[in-house]
Amino acid sequence: MHLKINDKTVSSCLGIIFKEVFYYFIPTIYLSEFDRFKPGKILILEIIKWCINNNIKRFDFGLGNENYKKHFSNKEIYSSKYLSFHSLKGFILYLNAIVFLKIKRLWL
User: Fold this and answer.
1) Nearest to 61 by CA among 29, 22, 30
2) Residue 95 and residue 101: Cα distance in Å, rounded?
3) Would you say 39 and 8 are in contact if contact means Cβ atoms under 8 Å apart?
4) pLDDT digit string (tens) for 86-107?
5) Looking at the DSSP assignment, which residues form a beta bridge with residue 5?
6) How many of the other CB atoms lie within 10 Å of CB of 45?
7) How many whole angstroms separate alpha carbon 106 and alpha carbon 101?
8) HSE (CB half, 13 Å, CA atoms) of 18?
9) Alpha carbon distances (Å) from 1 to 4, 68, 92, 105
10) Residue 54: pLDDT band by 50, 70, 90 thresholds?
11) What average pLDDT does the segment 19-34 reach?
């Protein structure tokens, strides 16, 4: 979805719709000259209107606790990971997963 002013794309979002849920995935602001008008927030409002008109049941901002998500949301869902093991093979896989997650966190 795109927000345009005089044929200039000001803001856009790559979203995914899956099972009646719109996943707000990658938002982008293109022109800083319009920042004072909050083009990202305007785009979110337009996407929400579009979702309502197209019977999309839920709008999901994804992970993160940015303030704009709290402004537009009426429900917050916490997500986390849980890893467990019940055998030596499971323990080895568990250690590999922990190392992988730690390395991944270093690169982000």
Assistant:
1) 22
2) 10
3) no
4) 899 988 988 888 888 788 777 6
5) 8
6) 13
7) 9
8) 6
9) 10, 18, 44, 30
10) very high
11) 82
